[in-house]
Amino acid sequence: MQTPKQTIIYDVVIIGGGPIGIACGLQAKKKGLSYLILEKGTLVNSLYNYPVNMTFFSTSEKLELEGIPFISNNPKPRKAEALEYYRRITTSNDLDIHLFEKVEKILQTDENLHEVRSTKSNYTARNIVVATGFYDIPNYINVPGEDLPKVDHYYHDPHFYATQKVVVVGASNSAVDAALEIYRKGGEVTMVVREPAIGERVKYWVRPDIENRIAEGSIKALFRSNLTEITPEHVKVETPEGRLQLENDFVLLLTGYRPNFNFLEMLGIDLSKDERRIPHYDPQTMETNVPGIYLAGVVCGGMETHKWFIENSRVHAHMIMQDILSKRER
């Protein structure tokens, strides 16, 4: 007769295998806490899905975890360098991480434990850390034709758009990078921007480039304008000068992304009632209104996705694991 398998109760299950999820795993291991990281995609999944030529705003030392040096060949590291850095950290520290395993539900048991149900298994934990970022859900603009095959909310590689007529909606870093790269691969680029100018947060070394390309006419920009409809052959744009219909091959709707608010609400986490939808948490411990559930990284900012980055949220890992450790020692 087989002995029933004993259920492992983790001190903490970390949801999200991005840089901050990895930082939480490193801190948990350092403090002797039993932990598990669950990631629904590949390692640092959001970073993996960034544009192929992406350059970080931060310098490499600001992306480092636990003082582990990040050596870059460039003043600002590139996506490929970051992927290699976080992979080496994960493997060299033998972090307990399950990839391609999506968390579907978390239930609280009578013993004040959390039952984590994923696509592959069930786990029990005393604490949960949500470090899921915000890159998974685009901000849809809800216009006719947004679901056409020619439309994408993510930009990957400029070569795909060579010689094509491409409309880029937005004026943030991602939109500006896409516009410049596609133009330099021979694409005919039109930017549609609600604001009167390029976004204030665009990387300072990129801003002169995009402004000069617009000024010389290499890239067309329609400011104070809105995309109103997408058809297989055209786009329709409302501008201060009136309505335009432009021939078009592809549309990139780079209008930002948002955290998975449905998931946070499923966990019972309170969100602010205003449009920012900022989750409730204790800024000293990062614990939410649900005991034993913590937030880490950019998910803490709600719709203010510009508020938290790797460089200023790395500290969340230490704060959370210290609070969990202090609870265990009581």
Describe this structure in words.
- The structure is a single chain.
- The protein is of the alpha/beta class.
- It has two domains: 9-137 and 257-328, FAD/NAD(P)-binding domain, CATH 3.50.50.60; 140-253, FAD/NAD(P)-binding domain (3-Layer(bba) Sandwich).
- Helix content is 23%, strand content 22%.
- It is built from eight helices and 19 strands.
- The strands form five sheets. The chain has a five-stranded parallel β-sheet with strand order 4-3-2-8-19, covered by helices on one side. Strands 10-17-11-12-13 form a five-stranded parallel β-sheet, with helices on one face.
- Helix 1 packs parallel to helix 8 (315-328).
Topology:
Elements (H helix, E strand, L loop, with lengths): L8 E2 L1 E4 L3 H12 L4 E4 L6 H4 L30 H14 L4 E2 L4 E6 L5 E5 L3 E4 L2 E3 L6 E2 L12 E2 L12 E5 L3 H12 L3 E5 L14 H10 L3 E3 L3 E5 L3 E6 L2 E6 L2 E4 L3 E2 L2 H6 L26 E3 L14 H4 L1 H14 L2
Parallel strand pairs: 1-7, 2-3, 2-8, 3-4, 8-19, 10-17, 11-12, 11-17, 12-13
Antiparallel strand pairs: 5-6, 6-7, 9-18, 14-15, 15-16
Helix pairs in contact: 1-8
